[in-house]
Amino acid sequence: MIDGDRTGNMHEPRKLYVKSFGCQMNVYDSHRMADTLAREGFVETQDPAEADLVILNTCHIREKAAEKVYSELGRLRKQKQEAGSDTMIAVAGCVAQAEGAEIMRRAPVVDLVVGPQSYHRLPELLAEARAGKRVVDTEFPAEDKFDHLPAPTRAATRSRGPAAFVTVQEGCDKFCTFCVVPYTRGAEVSRPVAKIMDEAARLVDQGVREISLIGQNVNAFHGAGPDGTSWSLARLMERMAGIKGLARLRYTTSHPRDMDDDLIAAHRDLPQLMPYLHLPVQSGSDRILAAMNRKHGRDDFFAIIEKMRQARPDMALSSDFIVGFPGESEQDFEDTLDLVRKVGFASAYSFKYSPRPGTPAADHAAQVPEEAKAERLAELQRLLEASKAAFDESCRGRTFDILLEKPGRQAGQLIGRSPYLQSVVVNDPPAAIGDLLTVTITDVGPNSLAGIPAEANDTSVSQSPASSALSRPLAAMEA
Ligand code: SAH
Ligand code: SF4
Ligand code: F3S
């Protein structure tokens, strides 16, 4: 171990602390930045105080998310001052892209601002910053960053667990009137099939069992296939399902407009594809959907759900909602509640509308007052919570495979994920991290479920709550 003594060893590896905000795209990018910097001799640390380089990988989606960066930078400035350290501070991600040099102005502690399309340039940008320059790179360069970002080592992949993300598509051409993504991530670009397949095969070879294909609009994927034609997401996943050792496939985030019949059929035909779909709808009101430029109505959404459930009767859904979009009336909001009641979501994210600079809706005259937004959000969240609780409860007694991902709080416990991304705690499983284990769900808590290996369920299904895996360690989920 070459830890601790910062003065002793000239060859001591430099330490990198990366903090990700926002969506899975940022989680994936953070890993790729760490992989790039590993080649430069950086090892990752979980403690910003001992880092030589801190990267904040930021999110611009709502005002609160964007402002978090500045409070984090304030904390880092204080920590640097108190320790008298020369830690280098970089801001990456969507705030970097959206605000660029403005970050340098507001936060003199920042040495480097780098947008999502320039991560492959990190080593040279860092060298410039080290030479004393304050560097801003928010270009959309012609070269493909993915061609220049090194793959993770086996050790890095192992440390990240058996479920991995692979970016297949970036950017967005949909221009919903509330959203910054088309500006921060640029136009829709799909990666070529062969490169995605190589990356996936390598991850599986390194021990990954589940891959989530990710993109801001993942189901608009249209990557160049090895045959020279453009491949759909369904076709890509069919190919991917052939990778030996890959047990599970997921994809996120999808847009209802791109939920075509092939993709729905893939849920019927590919056993590896999990029966769970995150399909943001935003609103249940046709008027608001039109004003948001979502390009579909509520009945289109119901029709997709219907087809999905026909293709996979055990299909469950999650979604995103925005309340208080400009012009949203009480009736529009009622329509959203009605949609939630009709669909019954297994999980959901919901937000107050946040006006974002440069987006059309931000200039709309009919902004909804803050108190109305807050009331609507609370009401919607009560309904979504009840919907989630009902779904979780419906899993009691069901048997399904979970992918064991990490240790639990108590000795012998492991925590895995159900097909529906629920955390499932198992005591003393006859299996290890990275294994799929068939369990029967015996307990349902607010943040996780507990289960027992299916073959053991005859004897222990009636175990008392006090002895169940859920009795204390729910907090394990937050670890
Ligand atoms: N590409 C995905 C969503 C990406 S952003 C899609 O098309 O649905 C993730 C979620 O953030 C969105 O689904 C939306 O619910 C929310 N969101 C985006 N912009 C927002 C804003 N200005 N205010 C509040 N929520 C917003
Ligand atoms: Fe944003 Fe709409 Fe694109 Fe999703 S589809 S990223 S909400 S503009
Ligand atoms: Fe946020 Fe950028 Fe993702 S704005 S949600 S980090 S694409």
Please give a structural write-up.
This protein is an alpha/beta fold. It folds into three domains: 14-137, Rossmann fold, CATH 3.40.50.12160; 145-394, pyruvate-formate lyase- activating enzyme (Alpha-Beta Horseshoe); 399-477, OB fold (Dihydrolipoamide Acetyltransferase, E2P) (Beta Barrel), CATH 2.40.50.140. It contains 16 helices and 21 strands. α10 (233-240) runs parallel beside α11 and α11 (261-269) packs parallel to α13. The structure holds S-adenosyl-L-homocysteine (SAH), iron/sulfur cluster (SF4) and FE3-S4 cluster. S-adenosyl-L-homocysteine binds next to β15.
Structural class based on helices, strands and sheet pairing: alpha/beta
Beta-strand residue fraction: 15-25%
Low-confidence stretches: 1-9, 459-468, 471-479
- Give the N-to-C terminal Cα separation: 25 Å
The biggest beta sheet is recorded as: 6 strands, parallel
Bound molecules: S-adenosyl-L-homocysteine, iron/sulfur cluster, FE3-S4 cluster
- Overall geometry comes to globular
In angstroms, what is the radius of gyration?
Answer: 23 Å
Physical arrangement of strands within the biggest beta sheet: 2-1-3-4-5-6
Please count the helical segments. Answer: 16
Number of strands: 21
Helix-residue proportion? 25-40%
Using the coordinates shown, work out and report the CATH topology of the largest domain: pyruvate-formate lyase- activating enzyme
